Protein 1
Amino acid sequence: MTAGNKGARSLHGSRDKQVRIDDMVAAPGENMRINGDRLWDSLMEMAKIGPGVAGGNNRQTLTDADGEGRHLFKKWCDEAGLTMGVDKMGTMFMTRPGTDPDALPVYVGSHLDTQPTGGKYDGVLGVLGALEVVRTLNDLGIKTKHPIVVTNWANEEGARFAPAMLASGVFAGVIPLDYAYGRKDPEGKTYGEELQRIGWLGDEEVGARKMHAYFEYHIEQGPILEAEDKQIGVVTHCQGLWWLEFTLTGREAHTGSTPMNMRVNAGLAMSRIFEMVQDVAMSEQPGAVGGVGQVFFSPNSRNVLPGKVVFTVDIRSPNQEKLDRMRAKIEAEAAKICEALGVGCSVEAVGHFDPVTFDPTLVGRVRSAAERLGYSHMNIISGAGHDACWAAKVAPATMIMCPCVGGLSHNEAEDISKEWASAGADVLLHAVLETAEIVEG
Ligand code: HGY
Ligand code: MN
Ligand code: MN
């Protein structure tokens, strides 16, 4: 790191002399930077926990692997002098004190849980990037007026317990704690039971903490930044989402001896609904997506027509009208498809958030940090959902993105470069510092 507060000027005669971020410049273009090797080493160390089968990770929420990752993260935070708080959803808050005890903290975080065939960087880059910011401030002996809280949100992925961003949704007051506790994984285990089992049930009321601001650093999980050859995504918005869980009821019957005209075929209804979802999303281009990632057949036997089929339709758009129009169309068309086949159909919205506009002041700080550091950058709308989407409901929030190879994510082959990882963390350092307010002396 190179840093020096040459010509530090106080912004006002407050108790602690405050220093402008751009005074912390060793020389133009040589602004403060994080330790890229240390960040990368930490990413690789965390990636050893909950390994996948193809080079990525399977560290699903509240599994033993998640517990192991949490302990490693806590060890590193202890070494960095942070104090831990855990809330009743298991989210970890690791605090670096500020000089002003009355100043609300700046929260910086993401998630350590992964998809079953997840990559090494989705979420993890944001948590360990935030830790690297703190490690760098410690190295430089920099104090801030506002505390900084490195945050590991529980159950961001929603892979094991739907919906995604569950803990941050409870924190934002959008999802009731009891509903969250009752969410079941495919084996019927509940979130509440599993949180107890791995020993990460905290004592803090969820959402009791108040934030001065929230930053989240994340891989793009899409192809735009790499294709445009930009190092930094200045995230202005995040697209909205519906997760519609359909339960189709057919009649279990022999796949061989049951005549075609006697079948109540829930599997056929499902396939027609999948086709329709694709058509609806394509009819709302540009700026709409729709698909299905998870299906449960029951009894799921090769020679039995399914009696029950459960699947979740995932539709998203940055445009509120498109998003709601897609939902209405899909639910109406699915009912018609099922009626024509004599299949029962029920649907439950198990996940939702409207399109999000991030805080313009914080977005501006991200952009000016990228400019100050000499990194190429562009505005971008997040295609994936993030805890920042719920944090934005209770505090000024924004995100920073780095490219990922081929735009690939939620795949064990997810990949980024060390340079990309470091550049985004440098921007995070500057944007967080500007918001947490450096204090001299
Ligand atoms: O679903 C999402 O967008 C996020 O990856 N949980
Ligand atoms: Mn993520
Ligand atoms: Mn993800």
Protein 2
Amino acid sequence: MTIEHKKQSLFITLEGGEGAGKTTQINRLAEALTREDYKVITTREPGGTPEGEKIRSLFVRDGGAQWSPLAEVLLVLAARAMHVERVVRPALEAGKIVLCDRFSDSTLAYQGYGRGLDAQTIGRLSQDVLGDLRPDLTFILDLPPELGLSRSTKRLAREGLSGFEGEDRFEKLEMDFHHKVREGFLMIAKNEPERCLVIDATVSVDAMAGAIWDAVRKTL
Ligand code: Z5A
């Protein structure tokens, strides 16, 4: 017997500060959609392709690099160009639901609001990479940075990933930076309420998954 998968192309992104629960919620959402016979792919940025994962290593590891904000944008856009062309667009064209852990809102929140690069520059540089591609639905997982950082630092330590080889370059930035990033995400949500939904990330994993699932069901 062949299983008929439901065809629906939908691009959903999860955004938010460190340790907000994006990976946990993407996995929960992918399970829920798969149970309903949707074809789903999960992916992430920076990364999502072998080339993008190489850029990710440069980008998130604390190897002593002092990237300027503009250089950070160019790095993430190089990874995004590969990701959009090789993974996101083909999956959407094949009628799949794409669940992406961070996307273009992270660039505006981190390099724009966080590091101070102006939004026009980010928008101009992003134009050729994105074309007309925009997420259909974006969940902004919101929590105080102190709580998120304590969760992600514990996870990195548990997995033995802190230190020189760990993905902890951003975790090490000062608290003021993380507050600016949080405000940036909330501003993005305020400016685009039809696309973005803010999810309280201080509540339980189940409560968050329920709120996300309700919104996705309405969109399907
Ligand atoms: N970055 C950028 O600057 N510009 C860009 O354009 C892009 C990215 C695309 C890597 O991202 C870095 O890249 C990021 C921004 C920058 N900065 N950093 N670092 P990342 O997504 O890999 O980094 P992250 O946000 O630190 O990921 P994370 O630590 O894996 O967090 P998460 O995916 O949001 O959370 P999680 O892994 O699902 O959960 C973290 C821990 O909390 C884990 O132990 C869970 O079991 C626990 N958890 C999850 N949910 C809950 C709830 N509800 N209650 C209690 N505990 C929970």
